[in-house]
UniProtKB/TrEMBL annotation:
Pfam families: Glyco_hydro_38C, Laman-like_dom. InterPro entries: Gal_mutarotase_sf_dom, Glyco_hydro_38_C, Glyco_hydro_b, Glycosyl_Hydrlase_38, Man2a1-like_dom. It comes from the Eukaryota. GO terms for molecular function: alpha-mannosidase activity; carbohydrate binding. Residues 27-65 form the Lysosomal alpha-mannosidase-like central domain. SUPFAM superfamilies: Galactose mutarotase-like (SSF74650). Residues 91-282 form the Glycosyl hydrolase family 38 C-terminal domain. GO terms for cellular component: lysosome. This is Uncharacterized protein.
Amino acid sequence: HTISHYVRVPVTKDYTVRDPSGHAIVAEMIPVSESTQRIPGRKSFALNQLVFKTILPALGFSTYYFEIKATENNNNNEKQVLVTHNSECILQNEYLRVEIDCQGNLNKITNLKKKIVVPFSNQGFYWYGSYPGNNSGSEFQASGAYIFRPISSDPEPVSSKRSITCVKGQNFQSAIILFNNWASQEISLYDDAKMVEVEWTVGPIPVYDNIGKEIILRYDTDIQSDSKFYTDANGREVLERIRDYRPTWNYSKVEPVSGNYYPINSRIWIKDSNRQLTVLTGKN
């Protein structure tokens, strides 16, 4: 079936975007975040990006055309976009309302149609120190690219404070939250979306202190999940998981942290009697 999808294109000039029929469509010019501009190896000089909605047919493609705007019209689109710094940011469309305070803390998400609210006591990046090990035995295996073994059960926040930039356009709203010079996230809500998009940028991770760091993005809610959560099994069926428990053997809590982390290809959620918070992966 036909689907719609919002596209972001980095640009160095202002363009009129035309759909496959040649009609001009709404394309909003928004700034490229500072964290994206600082990515090592980035070769683009674009400081702005165009955001526009595309319509894709089933098992097909659509072609959209870019036409450079006349010089005198270069600022017309930018006037439609409001950018504020370090102030409260409310993202809202017909379906969802996302409330972020002036310090960049995600406070709550409201489903406006069902009148369901999920508050967050905290949301952000944390890090576990990596177990150094010496690989002389399984119990001394070092944490690395293919094994997650934190040295402590208590993660540290990546920063004590954060800054926020709020961007609001006609069809697109986002909060760019900067934790430090190597960790940031962008929380976005599109005009007709029934979900919130979170895009994170991490790195290069500092290791000048000779401590490896395992970075996580954590959501703390008041959902009473009874220690249960649900993950896909290699992108297929969904399995119920219970913290510190395995259904087919007596579980020994040797790895209290990594023993409760599961690789997911598509989705994970927690729920209680009337609410559910689901995280969908954007890239596999």
